[in-house]
Amino acid sequence: MNEKAISQYLSFILRHKPEEIDLTLDREGWANIEDLISKSQPVNNTTLDEEIIKSIVSNSDKKRFQISDDGKYIRAVQGHSTTSVDITLNKLVPPISLYHGTAQRFIDSIKEQGLISKDRQYVHLTENKDTALSVGARYGKPQILAIHALEMHKNGFEFFQAENGVWLVKHVPEPYRVC
Ligand code: HQG
User: Fold this and answer.
1) How many C-beta neighbours within 10 Å does residue 12 have?
2) Closest Cα to atom 13 of ligand 1
3) How far is CA 124 from the centre of its chain?
4) Distance linking the first and last C-alpha atoms of the chain
5) Which of 34, 61, 168, 175 is the most buried (most CB within 10 A)?
6) Where are the alpha helices (DSSP H) in the chain?
7) Among protein residues, the one whose CA lies closest to atom 6 of ligand 1
8) What's the pTM?
């Protein structure tokens, strides 16, 4: 079984395109697992079932997914682009600095616009430089940016933390980028 491919498929459906398989997510991002299984396409010839889904959820390195307490529903905890989802997030005071991993080829544009969320609902930030490095490497030669998160918060920007610890903010204007 190819867990990575199935995890990517679940991310695609649960974060971006539930309508692709006519799946309904509620405002908090939850999908009924039975419904998801019956509507999903096989991934690399593997037909999804409850055991596979639960294994992927518990093995996810970044804890991308969550199963509801009653075991009937699944959601992605962050990373959404679909506007049908608006997860109630914990609003928290961030640490002094947070990191964002990007690709060097985006730096000129970031200097002009600051960090923007593009297709997703939020800019994603992390406390972990290694995570930032691997996130940035998905798009080219990686570059870690440090952000004055606490100063932003003091100036009125709202910071949220997803269930898996990823920090979320709507925009990071250029003056708050340290490097
Ligand atoms: C860049 C992964 C030009 C931004 C990670 C990034 C994360 C700009 C790309 C989650 C820009 C957007 C999200 C600007 C930002 N001009 N480029 N003004 N502002 N960018 O994939 O943060 O493994 O939407 O730096 O762990 O890379 O999928 O966001 O390179 O938490 O679970 O535009 O995805 O999680 O790319 O990644 P993305 P991201 P998973």
Assistant:
1) 14
2) 124
3) 7
4) 41
5) 168
6) 3-11, 33-39, 50-59, 107-113, 129-136, 149-154
7) 102
8) 0.94
Give distance in angstroms: CA of 81 to centre of ligand 1. 12
Other Cβ atoms within 10 Å of 70 Cβ, number: 6
Return the amino acid letter for 64.
R
Residue bearing tokens 């991934």: 43
23, 46, 141 from 94: Cα distances, Å: 34, 41, 27
Atom of ligand 1 nearest to the CA of 78: 31
Residue type, 130: D
Count of positions (residues) in the chain: 179
Residue type, 72: K
Residue 12 is classified by DSSP as I
